[in-house]
Structure formats: structure tokens, C-alpha cells
Design brief:
The structure is a homodimer.
Chain A lengths: L7 H4 L10 H8 L5 E2 L11 H11 L11 H11 L6 E4 L1 H13 L5 E5 L4 H9 L3 E5 L8 H11 L3 E5 L11 H9 L6 E5 L21 E6 L12 E5 L1 H10 L7 H12 L1 H24 L3 E2 L6 E5 L4 H13 L2 E2 L11 E5 L3 H19 L5
Parallel strand pairs in A: 1-11, 3-4, 3-5, 5-6, 6-7
Antiparallel strand pairs in A: 2-8, 7-8, 9-10, 10-12
Helix pairs in contact in A: 3-10, 4-10, 5-6, 7-8, 11-13, 12-13
Keywords (chains A, B): Aminotransferase, Pyridoxal phosphate, Transferase
Cofactor (chains A, B): pyridoxal 5'-phosphate
Protein name (chains A, B): Pyridoxal phosphate-dependent aminotransferase
């Protein structure tokens, strides 16, 4: 019996995954984490109004969601000061990035990103046969000028820039992005991943015409709105590009509960302001915890903080293992020299208490013989 | 300024969508439907335990869902009597079909389906550049023998068979599928879309080894479990094929609320039994309503009924328009001769009351001059 085979492109793909989930680590270690601070989730949670809207929508879950995402799209357009034709809604930025890569990249097309930036974007590029070119970070920042130079050198069709950046929490300014945009090669599209933009200073939010065909921006309800598990985000840009998503997206893909939650969350600007204040306070506290241990917290425009552990990646990895043994879930950048840091998400004080309590021992253990 | 362009394959795709949602029709007609009976949703709703689990999970929506879908996958494996390695969970059958097509089909590969079967499958095949071959229904049934003959003729890599079938509600038997499977060309994969299987008679559920590499089966929480809006379904088959999904799926794509709801729904076999009984009663009632109007309801193994309106597609379309004007959302098959029917979903009595009340007038209007 001849077994059905994968098509050549997927057949060539590895069986790797972009991320191991915290639940898998919990199953391996045989117990739940006491502090879940590794996935840049927002432990301050969704707006109570969003929770209520989602709980109410649960009883209506027998209905498919509106495939047009009409009400949310109109609300987002008003929120952004654009028209609904400039906006598309998707199942989180992960799905939007996958669809964008599918729209733009044929096998062998060149794509540029930063070395150590969002692995899921790379996963999508590999998945559609694109050729990835990676530009080093400069001083823990993504380097827009270098990204553009590389894009020109390799004839890229896509450039990825997260601003603010994950995993470092750093940001580049409007002015830097404007300069970079002018150096974008003709026919190349700039993806601005703005997942953390609600936590960023105004200078990090570029003033770009929404009709500029060279740029698409992506935002999410996963971070500032505390709805990562609901899977809903959006992209905005020139209508001709945005309409492209309708050619390939899973039209009934956004779940109805998330639609209701996102609509309620967007309307609750008071909760967003409170979350921003909570996150700013937690960032400061993570900075203080780092300092108490003789470490440096990097400046952050996100809801997480990269803490420089002062040694190499092996040391930071040992810190993470020791933290995990103590019930603290955190992560770290994957590439040197950023991997001298651990990355800790902001969260309520009781979670940060546990981190503060566990860190000194974890650092001590990491300084001893490697254990794994 | 040179505008970024789509890759050649998506550039060739039309801006059509597989379906217009009922909400879009409601916005056009300027009011909500009084009876929502057109999308094969299950108006008897999710298990109260699933609703409670989803409402509870809403407050935890700040956490991403488990990318391994571990607990649900294990529960499904126990439910199916297979191992977790035989199961993959996805964002509804729509997403699973998209990923399967992406796994199996390179541009120009041949795919066989029935003419008038699920349009979203065709959308995915077109979206990945496959060549679709359509086999006619025979006596309102998909025709497994003809599907296999066509697959052999065109050298297909994929054959799609929905059993029970949408849009006709008909089914083929285990015996017919076994015969067909033996005629499947070497290297070709049979997709059994079993979205409605929980409503089907035992003879419609084929006995196929889960390790048979020639078949993949897909099921969902959208229909019998009443959770269409939660977007969660699963596929099962040989582990080597199932593992392929990990190469391309959106690992964090299934929302946490749906995971919790599906787990609770699967455990509530009492509610499922009650839903089956409710649906059987509603099918009978739809048959009686049809008969009261001099029409014939086709036998159905699903939660909807195709009602033969006794004329052509134009007539049935006029019936639908008149029903819509009366606040009743229904749909119809897209291809002759099945398009002599309208397709009405099962629902609670108050919904069917409205349909029963509106149908005589709708038929009368359809018999007069076409209005649109």
C-alpha cells in the first residue's frame, strides 16, 4: 500500500514548534507554576466588562461568529481614526502573520527580520518556503537602518520589525522608523508588529499614513487587553492590502466569544488606563528586584522586563531552571548577547513576591556547577 | 513608489468568500432574523456544563491556551478508543481542512470532491493552487464509487467525502465506504468529514483502523455539541499524518475558552443524548411541516433537513428570499438538481413555529412572478 505523502514544501519542514507552552513544562515538572511570568501574558487580566461579555457570549456559542467581524472592525476603525476598509481582524497576531506571509511570499522569496526576534514569524516564513535573513540587534534594540540595508541587499519582499520589541522590551522612535521607511526597497512591505504598543511611550508610535502601501501594522487584544487566550487581534493598512486577507483567511475563524470580549474591552478605556498603571508599577518593581540582586533591568516599553544576569546564556538558562524548580515560569532571549538576560512578565504583586523570593537562590544555584 | 505585490498564487485568487454570514444578511435587510435556521448551527445549545466551563475560563482568558491541547487530546483519545498520537485539535474543521490541504497539495495537484459539497473545502484547495475535480451527486447522495473512479482518472492526491453529507443530509454506509476505500488510488488520501456523525445511524460510521494511512477523519464541537462559535474541532488518523499538522499549524491558535468548553462538553454525554433526541424530534417536525405544505423532506442523518420544494433552483431561491423577508434564515444547496431544495436547520420549537408559520406564504410568493 502506497502511503499518501506530504507535498514537497511541508515535507521539507521540521517537526519543531516555535514555543513550548508553560503547561507542557508543568506536566514535565509534575506541578503547576506558582507564578506564570514567562509568556508575556497580562496577569492583571481582562476588563471585568470583557469577562462579563465573554461569559454572556458563552451561552450563545452555538452561533458562529460574524465572519465579517463587522462590529469590532467598525469599533477598531473609530478607535484608530481610519475606515473599516483599513482593518482586518484575525485569530491573534500569530494567525495574521501567517496569512500575511502566505499572501506575500512564494518559495525562495527573501524576508528580513532581527536575529532573536519573534520565532513564530520565522516559523511562518519557513512554512511558506521563504528565505530568512537575520540582522543583529544593536545595543539590545532592533536596528531599523540595518534591516533596510539587508532588505535592499537581498531583495526582500517583507521586513519584520516589532516595536516595542520582544524579547528585549526596547523600542525605536517614530523618527527612526520614518528614516527607515524611506530606505525600504521598492516593492518591499514593512510589517510593524505593535503587540505591545499600548505600553509604549508616544515617541515609539510612528506617524504613518494608514494608506501608505509600504506598511502594515498589527495589534492584539492579547497583551494590554489581557485576552491572550481569546485569540483575537487585528491588522491595519492600505485597503488593497487588507482586502488580500479575504482571499485566504479562515472567514469563520475568529470565535464569537472573543469578538464579544474584544468589543467590550475596547470600550473600557478606564480598565486599559489602570492596566497601564499596574504594568508601569510592576516594571518598576521588577527593576527594584533586579537591583536588589545586583542585576540590571533593561528599560522596557512592554509588559515584561529583560533582566541582565551579567553572564552568558548558559548562566541565564541555569537561572531559569532554578526558577522553574521554585515554581516560577520565566523565559529568556534565544540569541547572544541578549541571552545574558531573563525575561520576566509583569504581573500582580503576589506573583512578583514569589519571583523576588526565588531569585536570590536561583542566582546562587546558577553560579554553581551546571545541573542540566 | 512601487507598491508591494502579492505572491503569484494569492495574486491569482478571487476576492470571493465561501459564505456570507447571517449577520451580513441581517445588516442588509435592516433587522435581526427571528429564526436562525440557515447555518446548521445547533439551537439547542451547548451543554450547561460547557457554558459554565467557558464562562469560568473567560476570567482566565489572560493566559494563552495550551498549545498541545493536551487535556482535550487525551480525553478525545479515550473517547475514540485511540492514542493521543492519533489526534490533533484545531480551530474547527475549517482550519483543519485548510491545514490538511496545505500539507498535501502543491500547485497543480488534483483533488476530487462532489459537485455541490462543502464550499470551504474548495476554497482551501483553490487557495493552495490545487486543481479541483467535481463528481456529481447520485440521487442526492455523495457517490463514493464515482469519487474513487475520478480520483484514479485524474491522479488525485486528496478525495473529500462528507458523511453524513452537507447540504443534503444524506449518508453512505460503512459497506459503501469500505468498497470505495479499496478503490482509492495508491498515494491518495481520503478525507472523511464527519462533522455531523453524532446525528447519524450506526451504519453510517465506518469501521476503519485509525492507523490506516489512507484516511483522515474530522469531527467538531460545532454541531452536536452546539459550540460553533467557540471554534474547536479535531482530526484523527495515523500518527505520521497527524504529526504533520505540527509542522504548519498555528500552535497557539485554539482559544483557551473553547478548550475548557470542549472538555466539559465531551464529558456531558447526557446532554449529547438529549440533543440527539431534540434533533430527531425537530427533524420529524420539519418533515411534518414540509408535508403540511405538500413538500417532501429528504431523509437526514444530520441536524438539518433538505426540503424538496418541487421546482427548480430559481423557485427555491425565491422561497428563501420570502422566508428571509419574514425573518427566517435558511439556506439551499448551490448546485442542480439539489438546488430544488431548501436546507433548514433543526432548532427549538419556537424557532420551528416561526418557520411553519412563514412557509406557506413563502411558497405562495415564490410561485408568483420572480421579485429579484
Amino acid at each position: 500500500m502506497e502511503t499518501p505523502r506530504f507535498a514537497p514544501l511541508p515535507d521539507s519542514l521540521p517537526e519543531t514548534v516555535p514555543f513550548t507552552g508553560p503547561e507542557a513544562i508543568e506536566r514535565r515538572r509534575g506541578g503547576a507554576f506558582a507564578a506564570r511570568l514567562g509568556a508575556n501574558e497580562n496577569g492583571f487580566g481582562p476588563s471585568p466588562r470583557a469577562i462579563a461579555a465573554m461569559a454572556e457570549a458563552a451561552a450563545e456559542a452555538w452561533k458562529y461568529g460574524d465572519p465579517d467581524n463587522h462590529d469590532l472592525k467598525f469599533a477598531l476603525a473609530a478607535h484608530l481614526g481610519v475606515t473599516p476598509d483599513h482593518v482586518t481582524v484575525g485569530e491573534g497576531i500569530d494567525a495574521l502573520l501567517g496569512n500575511l506571509v502566505r499572501l506575500m511570499i512564494a518559495p525562495g522569496d527573501a524576508v528580513v527580520t532581527s536575529n532573536g526576534a519573534y520565532p513564530t514569524f520565522n516559523y511562518h516564513v519557513n512554512g511558506f518556503g521563504g528565505d530568512l535573513y537575520r540582522v543583529p540587534y544593536r545595543d539590545d534594540h532592533e536596528d531599523p537602518a540595518a534591516l533596510m540595508a539587508e532588505a535592499a541587499r537581498v531583495g526582500a519582499r517583507l521586513v519584520y520589525l516589532a516595536n516595542p520589541d520582544n524579547p528585549m522590551g526596547s523600542w525605536v522612535t517614530d523618527a527612526e522608523i520614518q528614516v527607515a521607511l524611506n530606505a525600504l526597497p521598492p516593492g518591499c512591505l514593512l510589517i510593524l508588529d505593535e503587540a505591545y504598543v499600548e505600553f509604549a511611550p508616544p515617541e515609539a508610535v510612528p506617524r504613518i499614513s494608514v494608506d501608505d502601501p509600504r506598511v502594515i501594522r498589527m495589534r492584539t487584544f492579547s497583551k494590554a487587553y489581557g485576552m491572550a487566550g481569546a485569540r483575537i487581534g487585528y491588522a491595519f493598512g492600505a485597503p488593497a492590502l487588507i482586502r488580500g486577507f479575504d482571499r485566504i483567511r479562515n472567514h469563520f475563524g475568529v470565535n464569537r466569544i472573543a469578538q464579544a470580549g474584544a468589543l467590550a474591552a475596547l470600550a473600557d478605556s478606564g480598565w486599559l488606563a489602570q492596566t497601564r498603571a499596574n504594568v508601569a508599577r510592576a516594571r518598576n518593581r521588577l527593576g527594584a528586584i533586579a537591583a536588589d540582586n545586583g542585576l540590571t533591568a533593561l528599560p522596557s516599553a512592554t509588559n515584561f522586563v529583560a533582566i541582565d544576569c551579567g553572564h552568558d546564556g548558559d548562566f541565564a538558562r541555569r537561572v531559569l531552571v532554578a526558577l522553574s524548580d521554585a515554581g516560577i515560569f520565566a523565559r529568556m532571549p534565544g540569541v547572544a548577547p541578549m541571552d545574558r538576560c531573563i525575561r520576566v512578565s509583569c504581573g500582580p504583586d503576589d506573583q512578583l513576591d514569589l519571583f523576588a523570593k526565588a531569585l536570590p537562590d536561583a542566582l546562587r544555584q546558577a553560579g554553581q556547577t551546571p545541573r542540566r
